[in-house]
Amino acid sequence: MGSHCARATDTTRWAARSVRLGRGLVWRAVSEEGPDDEALLRTDAWCSSCCLFAAAGECPGRAVRLHICNALRCDGPGDGHNRARSRWFGGSRISCHPHDLRSGGKADQGRDGRAFELEERGDCACFLGQCIHRPDHHRHHLRCAGSKLTEKVSGKSGGTVAPVGLTQYSYDSVGRLECTAVRMNPARFNSLPASACTPGVAGSQGPDRITKTIYDAAGQVLQVRKAVGTSIEIADVTYSYTRNGKIEYVIDANGNRAKLEYDGHDRQTKWIFPSKARPSAFNPSTPATALATAGPINPADHEQYGYDANGNRTSLRKRDGKKIAYTYDALNRVTKKDLCSSGTASCSAIPSTHRRDVFYEYDLRGLQTKARFDSLTGAGITYTYDGFGRLTAETQTTDGISRTVSSRYDANGNRTRVTHPDGQYWTFDYDGLDRVTNVKQATTTLGIASYNNRGLPLQFAWTWSTASSNKSTYGYDSAGRLGSIALDLHGSTRDVSWSYTRNPASQIASETQSNDAYSWNGHVDTVRAYTTNGLNQYSAAGSARFCYDANGNLTADGTSVYLYDVENRLVERRAQGSANSNCAALSYTGALEVRLHYDPLGRLHQVSGAAWARSASSMTAMR
C-alpha cells in the first residue's frame, strides 16, 4: 500500500495502489495523470462511487478527493482491474498540496450549474467525496467507512447562513443503519448526542423524531420502531422470515398479523389477512414478544397468485373469491386480462358493462398500440408513436364515438402541442432548461410561467383576457421550501395569500391567511367514539355504522351504498334507505345517485346519474 502526492505543478497529481480501511474493505485508485481536465481511475468491485483515499500521514491534514458530480464518465463498480478515463472540471479538482484552497465546505457548482456545499470530516485515510445537487446548503458528515453521520440543511437569508434542519444517523457494530434522528431543536444542532438513538434536549418544537431498526443475525429487519424515547413510541412494523429469507409474517403497530406464502421458486402465492378481532394483549416491546402476542390470521381471507414457467403472474384470486386471469405472448407481454375468470365467486352482481375483458397489442418495439374491450377489434384505445417512441396520437372509442388527441414534440422531447378532438389545440413554449414558459390556444397566449434563480416556480399568470386575468405567485424560505402562495384574481375581492412557517422536520408549523372568505366555518364541537377492527377499518363512528365487502371496500355508510367492480373501482352509488342496514345482506336497488365508467386502462371515462352527469367528450384522457 502506498501513495504519492505530487506538487500542484506536476501533471501526475496522485498515484496509489490500494488503501485498506479495515474489516477487509479496500479502495483502489491508480494514476491520476494528465492536464487539469483529465483523470484515470480504477475502483474495487464493491465500490459504489468513484472515490480516492490517501494513506494516513502521506498527505498530512489533507485528503485526496474527486467529486463525482463533476465527472463526465467514471468506471465502477468493477472487478478491481477495469480502467476508465474520466474528464473532470479542473476548478473542482483537489490536490494534496498544502496550499490548495479548494477545501471541504467550499460552495461549488455541479455540471447542471446549481450550487451545492459540502462539509466532510475525517482523516486523510478515510475521506469520501459526495455531491448533493440542491439549491440550498446541504452538508454531510461522514464516518470512516463512508457512512453518513449527519445531514444538515441550511438556508441563506440576508447574507447569513443558518441551519434549518438536521438529521443524525448511527450504526451498529457491523455497519448497519440503526437509528435515524430528525433533530427538532436547532439550538442543539452543534451539541448532538453521541448516538442518533439517544433523544436530545427538547425545544419548542417537541421531541426529536427518532426511528430505530432492529436486525437479526442475518441482517434482516425484525422491527422498525418510531418515536423512540417518547411516551408514544411504537413498533411500527415487525417481521419474521422463512428459511429462504422471504418475509413470512408482518405485524402492524396494533398487533394485527398478516402472512405471506411462497412456492418452491420463492414467488409469493398467497397473502393472508389478519383476523377482524383485534389482539387483546399485544406486547410490542421486542420483536419476539410482538410475534408471540400478535393477533391471529384469518386463512379464509386471502389473495392468491398463479404463475407461468416464465414467472409471469397468470391469475389473481381476489379476497372475495373472484378471479382475474392474464395471458401473455412469447415476449412476456400481457395480451389479455380476463375479468371474472372461473373463480369461486360469481360476478353476477356486477353489471356486465363493468366486467368486460381487455385485450392488448404491441408494436415491434414493445410499445402498446391497443387496449380494447372484448377483442382487439372492440371499443377502446389505439396509440400511435413516432420514431423516438413518443406518443403522437391516442384514439378513444370506448363509448362508440371516435375521438383523437394528438401531440407534437420539440427536439428535446418536450410536448409542444396538444390537439383535441374538436380541432382546438394548445401549444407550449419552453426555455433552455426545458421548463414551460408559455401556454397558448393556437397563437393566443393563455398563460405565462416564470421561475426564480433556483429554478423553482415563481409565478403562473393566466392573461387570456382582462376579465379572466389571474396570477398565482409562490414564495420560498431560505432553504427552498414553499413559504407562501398568493392568488391575484380579477378584481380584488377574491385575492388571497397564505404564508407558512416550518419546523425542523420541514412540516408546516403555522399558516397565515389574508382573506377570511376562504375560511371554512362548518366546524362543530363534538365528542365521538371510533371503533376499529383487526383490518384497521372503522366499524363505527359515534352512531354511524359502516359496512365493507370482502375486498375491504366501503359498501355502506348509513346514507349511501357503494358497488365496486372486480378491480375495486367504484362503479355505483345508490341511496341506502333506513331498512337497508344489514351488512351481510346489503341491497343495491336504491335510487341511483351516480354511476362511473372506466376505459380499458382503468381511467375514469364517464360519470352519469342525477346532477353528476359528465359526458365522455368532456373527459378526454391524455397521457
UniProtKB/TrEMBL annotation:
Residues 381-485 form the Teneurin-like YD-shell domain. Keywords: Repeat. The keyword Repeat applies. The keyword Repeat applies. It comes from the Bacteria. NCBIfam families: YD_repeat_2x. This is RHS repeat protein. It comes from Erythrobacter aureus. The lineage of its organism: Bacteria, Pseudomonadati, Pseudomonadota, Alphaproteobacteria, Sphingomonadales.
